[in-house]
């Protein structure tokens, strides 16, 4: 039996999980791939920290550079995260003819196109199933299982931290800041949470999925991103009353005018499947012209789920290695020479329904004034709720409106006009309503 | 660019879908596999029927035997269904060195082990993603994406007809027979529905999944099968009141005493993900030691979804063909020489909670009499509901009980004793309560 020799960069949470997995299920791989997986070297700057792991017998080093150039390594597993020094290490590994398996979404979303090019030239695999939705095999589903389909839409919940926060806010009727704090204490959110709660992590993953789905070069910069900091428990409460839940969605759609690529909080029907995805779970819905909707669900992060995806990629490489082949499946499903950028639809041209919550002075004539703004911008109103009068005329009352389908340009313009009215007391809250399939 | 030459057996619903798909998305495959897919021959006994499909340009024949032996065919797509003559045709195709792609669950579940052996010996692919859950890529997920995991549990909804019937019964509070009739009129159920409603189709699919999941030879005969004919709208109503939904579940679990392999209606918590899978959809939940729970959802049948899976398998074969390799992934994930049968747990030894509904005479002393039966069989009762007295003492009233955890052996014995009581007027209804993960 042949051996696939693995070098691991980064012994953090996921790295520890990979070591544990290789040790626990080693026999399985031999039965499933006719190949022995051997972890020959581990690089980490901190070799002292106790990880609850017996590291005797491993070749440990602080020199990652030596691993990516070592002649006795077939596959480099990059679990350092971030751009520096991961980017350079991955590139060096590929240039040295090594396959790379990574869970690094930021790296792939931002520099994936260049790295794919290097991998392509050197005939190496660059595998990143673990970069999107953790244990959920959505990359393989898109690249292989759905290869017969023209994909026209993807939407999903790709960040467990945000989904946990929104779930807690709904279930316990607590404000964002308080839930974030307890999420940080429980280790569900980072000390600096902005990557997660500002939607950037979700957008990284969407950049990867949309390139594979639509056969476009990877382009993180064309995604519109809005996070969940501005979502209040009040809006979550209103959503509930109106039959919706608020989720941070990643959405990619192909239409006649181009691609919609957007990450933002959205109201979805509370009886939809995506609304049922709560807590730290991830879910991706994919619509293809023949498959219809398929959905993939599971844990999007954590030591063991992410290790499952990383080692799944290694087994895939091993199964190629047995036959002496590499790059059986094009890295973005479509072969590099056929990748074509598609025009991206501006958020201004987005068509949909909108939820708006205003704080208005409780006086006669105010509703007429506000209605007139919507009329001027050709927005028609589907539902309107005004809460019972406040005891004092000076305390504003909430006015909640849902529009019929309109474009975001009109909504933005109307919001600007509304802000200028004396009777509107706070910056209006607005959340898109997304009509999801299934 | 090289060409993969396809012979299609059976131009029914799915066959028509495959022809349409190959025609619609032909360019995609070339971009995705560096291989042209060409449908060179179609065999069907009925070449006259109008399928709304332009068949000019195809080589049509009534002689399936000629297709499976033809020297100009690389891949045979078997969409005839059933055992005869599909079994012989598939075997002949494999013996002639052709890859086979099939959607035939009965064939794979019952004779898959023999056919895999032939495929193995001849170095051919035998691909059957379409045989389980239609467009949902659960075979690939198990064989490849989750290859790093020890799988310990699968449960799922694998038959859209049953799920549609149970959903309609719940939503419209209608009896089984009436919903079945309208499902037949709408084409959701066959004229002879027994394969579906008696659980056999679900069991075929479970046989396939469990072999892959647990590394055992395929063994349909060891699955305990119970269908949905005996589920009444009354029980569905009781389930609802108690916070459950009734689903026909396929369940495979590996425990210390062996495998549980069973198909039966089960009550599941109404806020679980599996309870949310309604109508004709399929869903499979898989629990692995590292991945945790992942779930796969979509359309389990129909022209286009099944065609998506069939052609997905063809693309997979094409991507191997480009490199001149075959059988990259062992057909049951584990290589043939490592497949090992595992002991199967008898249904008598099943441990769980049970829902029981009795029709009892409304007289003093009856409850004591019934309670005594449970006491004798060491079954403790978790909840008990008795409906308001009937106006006449001779008309029986419903008595609904939920047991604490016990073994099915005890429940069966208690039911026999209960049937013997004068105060119990009908054969008791019993439904297993399944505690599902997530």
Rg of chain A, Å, rounded: 24 Å
What is the oligomeric state here? homodimer
| Helix share, percent of chain A | 25-40%
Q: Please, what is the average pLDDT of chain A?
A: 94
Strand content of chain A: 15-25%
Low-confidence stretches of chain A: none
Find the count of extended strands of chain A (DSSP E, 2+ residues): 17
CATH homologous superfamily caption of the largest domain in chain A? NAD(P)-binding Rossmann-like Domain
Per CATH, which architecture of the largest domain in chain A? Answer: 3-Layer(aba) Sandwich
Task: Give an account of the 3D structure.
- The longest helix of chain A has 19 residues, at about 305-320.
- Chain A is about 35% helix and about 25% strand.
- The first copy, chain A, folds into three domains: about 1-135 and about 305-330, Rossmann fold; about 140-300, Dihydrodipicolinate Reductase, domain 2, CATH 3.30.360.10; about 350-435, ACT domain (Alpha-Beta Plaits, 2-Layer Sandwich).
- Chain A has about 450 residues and is α/β, with parallel strands linked by helices.
- The radius of gyration of chain A is 24 Å and the shape is elongated.
- In chain A, about 55% of the residues are buried.
- Chain A has helices spanning about 15-25, 25-35, 65-70, 85-95, 105-120, 140-145, 160-170, 175-185, 195, 200-215, 235-240, 305-320, 365-375, 410-420, and strands spanning about 1-10, 35-45, 60, 75-80, 100, 125, 150-155, 225, 245-255, 260-270, 280-290, 290-300, 350-360, 380-385, 395-405, 405, 430-435.
- The model of chain A has no long low-confidence stretch (mean pLDDT about 95).
- Strand 12 of chain A pairs antiparallel with strand 12 of chain B, so a sheet runs across the interface.
